[in-house]
Structures are given as structure tokens and as C-alpha cells.
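Action item from last meeting closed. Structure (250 res):
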């Protein structure tokens, strides 16, 4: 059984190297981290203790019908995707996001085998703390790896797993995306340390300005872009935020 928060689309991939592409989203429930600025905290901030990790401090309802936990068979998720788009005859990208989908990688294999078998690309959004197993990796087209920096509020030992990042790099399917805040110089110095330590090829690195509203997203991008380019890193906007602000269904 899979622990799911949302299945939605069609929409555009908002972030990273596939930004703007047509896709459907499967958003899994639960996360092994707790970022202060998380924009999908409804997938994990369901206790007072977890909610206290977020900037807003808001506790979400575990059984909220829209965004709360749905325990589903892989076939039910497939039915839901089929109702949204003809995934068996008009292949697209299925973005599996979270929360942290790698927490459920073994359970996801039957669904992902079915989707990739119909020609869909499978893109995994992960914070890069859990390495993929072979049968899961065989279904994946692209990993969008977003290692968390100190600005996320997570302990270093929880958020930074260089061996996992190296394993994802070695699949040759990974792009690395780092969230930077208004304090972009401090953030970029930390990105540099991670990129050198793992190491990660700079042409696979993008920095992405924080912000769940257009104004913050654009302002942080404008501050950051030249420093990122000078390092050989790309810049990712949050396309869904530019289009729809923080609408969780887009
Ligand atoms: S890793 Fe992602 S889903 Fe988990 S708390 Fe951080 S931003 Fe949210």
C-alpha cells in the first residue's frame, strides 16, 4: 500500500531542468526532514512537534480529505492518473514528489513499472538522504535531487548524506537543485562545499530561489543569478509559483 497525499494534473513541472514540461504529480505523504520553509508541510506537519519545525507553526490535519493521508493500492493511483490523463496511450512525465517519496521506494515499484512501461517518464523529487535500490532505479528517468542547506533548519547529520548524493550522481540521471534564500551568499558558499565534497558536476547544479509568492521568488532570483552563473550553476525559477502563487493543486 502507498501513503499518498495528492494525485493531480495535468500541470507543468515547476522546478529544475524539466521546468515547464507537461506532467502529472503523485505526491506521497510523510517526510524524513522538516524544513522551516517547506511548501508542502501538509504532507508531514501533522503533530504539534512537527508543526513547530515550520516557519508558520501550523499543524495540518492527518485526515484532511484534500491533502491528508490516503492509503492507496498502486492500482488505485493508476486509476486516478488514468482519470486525469491517458497515461497508457499519451505518455507524459509522472513527477513523484512529496514529502519524501524515497521513503516508499519499494512500494512505488509496481506503479512506476506500469507507468514507465507505457512510455511515461518518471521523475523523482527527493532531498537526497535515501539511496535508490536497483528495482526502483530501473523505473526512473530523472532524479531531481534537492539537498537541504542550513537554511532549512534541519540538523546537518539528518540532511546531508554525501554517500547517497554520490549514489544518485552515479545513476547519471540526477540533477541537483539547491534552495537559496535572501541570504544567498551564505547559501552559495554551502552549495560550493557540497558540490566539491561529493563531488557533483557543476553543469548538473541549479540554484532555486525560495519563495511561495511571485515577488519573493523573482527578487531572490535577481539577487542570486550572477553569483550562481559565475560558479557554473544554473538558475531555476519556481514556474508554478510564477503562474499560480502557492496553489497546492497546481
Ligand atoms: S524535504 Fe521537501 S517535503 Fe520534506 S520538509 Fe523539506 S521541503 Fe518539505
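Sequence:
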Amino acid at each position: 500500500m502507498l501513503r499518498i497525499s495528492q494525485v493531480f494534473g495535468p500541470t507543468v513541472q515547476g522546478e529544475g531542468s524539466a521546468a515547464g514540461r507537461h506532467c502529472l504529480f503523485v505526491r506521497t505523504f510523510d517526510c524524513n526532514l522538516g524544513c522551516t520553509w517547506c511548501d508542502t508541510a501538509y504532507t508531514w506537519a501533522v503533530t504539534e512537534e512537527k508543526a513547530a519545525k515550520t516557519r508558520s507553526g501550523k499543524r495540518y490535519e492527518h485526515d484532511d480529505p484534500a491533502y491528508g493521508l490516503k492509503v492507496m493500492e498502486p492500482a488505485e493511483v493508476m486509476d486516478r492518473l488514468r482519470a486525469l490523463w491517458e497515461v497508457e496511450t499519451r505518455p507524459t512525465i509522472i513527477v513523484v514528489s512529496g514529502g519524501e517519496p524515497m521513503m516508499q521506494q519499494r512500494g512505488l515499484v509496481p506503479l512506476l513499472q506500469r507507468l514507465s512501461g507505457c512510455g511515461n517518464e518518471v521523475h523523482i523529487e527527493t532531498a537526497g538522504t535515501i539511496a535508490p535500490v536497483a528495482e526502483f532505479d530501473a523505473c526512473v528517468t530523472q532524479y531531481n535531487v534537492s539537498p537541504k542547506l542550513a537554511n532549512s533548519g534541519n540538523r546537518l547529520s539528518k540532511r546531508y548524506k554525501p554517500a547517497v548524493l554520490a549514489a544518485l550522481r552515479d545513476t547519471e540521471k540526477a540533477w541537483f537543485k539547491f534552495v537559496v534564500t535572501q541570504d544567498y551568499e551564505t547559501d552559495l558558499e554551502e552549495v560550493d562545499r557540497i558540490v566539491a565534497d561529493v563531488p557533483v558536476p557543476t553543469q548538473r547544479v541549479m540554484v532555486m530561489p525560495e519563495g511561495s509568492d511571485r515577488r519573493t521568488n523573482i527578487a531572490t532570483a535577481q539577487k542570486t543569478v550572477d553569483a550562481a552563473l559565475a560558479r557554473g550553476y544554473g538558475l531555476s525559477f519556481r514556474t508554478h509559483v510564477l503562474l499560480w502563487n502557492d496553489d497546492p493543486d497546481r
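Note appended to the action item: The first strand starts at residue 2 and ends at 12.
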